[in-house]
Design goal:
The chain has 233 residues and is mainly beta. It has one domain: Sandwich (Jelly Rolls), CATH 2.60.120. It has helices at residues 5-26, 120-123, 163-169, and strands at 28-30, 40-41, 47-50, 53-58, 67-71, 78-88, 92-101, 108-119, 141-143, 148-151, 156-159, 176-183, 186-191, 194-200, 210-215, 221-232. Strands 1, 3, 4, 6, 12, 13, 14 and 16 form an eight-stranded antiparallel sheet that branches. A hairpin with a 2-residue loop joins strand 12 and strand 13. The longest helix is centred in the first third of the chain and has 22 residues, at 5-26. The two termini are 38 Å apart.
């Protein structure tokens, strides 16, 4: 069968459009240019750029409340990669995603890939995770790196990373790579290429929203974020 020139031209055009569409959706893009906070919004008293990184918090005073630097754009299905390190007395931050700012509040509601530590007694408050902390003193720091928390919404740990795996993988006082993949109802989190969270959402909650970088309230703390890249799926 010989195709008409018009049919060949239309088929070629459709193929080009399909190829371009696939390429557009799989391109990895930087969310941070290493120099300015263009594309982000938050309190400049708590977020600044230094040495090619976003620095959240301060080492001179207490952090009075949770603070978040958020993207202007919202994202649904994506894979996000970035590097994080903690400096100072405090020990808690996080990466929000599929989240929303709460009106007239400093808080953000939604999923959080947690980073840092909390007292083991706090983890014991969640019945499904008590078995992981029975041998620990309530004040013993428990690593939240790579865990999934629901910030200011259901206010609970959705998936708790294995303590031994995290401690074997974590690089204290150094840069740690976090990878988050959110695809439909499936959420996965990696810490330094080790899978720490695999969660399936069963409730009706928003599946798109902003991405945010948190510094937690408490003792003087800086959370450094750099090399932030996203691939929309």
């Amino acid at each position: 069968m010989i195709l008409a020139p018009q049919t060949i031209a239309v088929s070629f055009l459709l193929l080009l459009m399909l190829t371009f569409s696939c390429q557009r959706r799989t391109i990895t893009k930087p969310l941070f240019n290493g120099e300015t906070l263009q594309g982000w919004e938050g309190d400049p008293d708590f977020f600044r750029v230094k040495d090619g990184a976003i620095v959240a918090g301060r080492l001179t005073d207490l952090i009075p409340q949770n603070e978040f630097l958020c993207t202007v754009k919202e994202y649904g299905d994506f894979e996000l990669r970035l590097k994080v390190k903690l400096v100072g007395e405090g020990s808690n931050g996080g990466i929000q995603f599929r989240s929303q700012r709460i009106p007239e509040s400093h808080e953000v509601a939604g999923y959080q890939a947690d980073i840092g530590f909390i007292p083991s007694g706090w983890v014991q408050g969640f019945a499904q995770f008590r078995g992981r902390t029975e041998s620990l003193n309530e004040e013993t720091p428990y690593p939240l790196w790579g865990s999934l928390y629901d910030e200011s919404r259901r206010a609970r740990i959705l998936d708790l990373a294995d303590r031994k795996l995290v401690m074997a993988t974590l690089k204290p006082d150094d840069w740690n790579e976090i990878r988050i993949r959110a695809e439909q109802k499936q959420i996965k989190i990696w810490l330094n290429n080790q899978l720490t969270t695999e969660y399936t959402e069963e409730e009706d909650v928003p599946q798109e929203g902003i991405i945010g970088l948190q510094v937690h309230s408490g003792p003087p703390l800086e959370v450094w974020y750099k090399d932030i890249f996203i691939q929309e799926l």
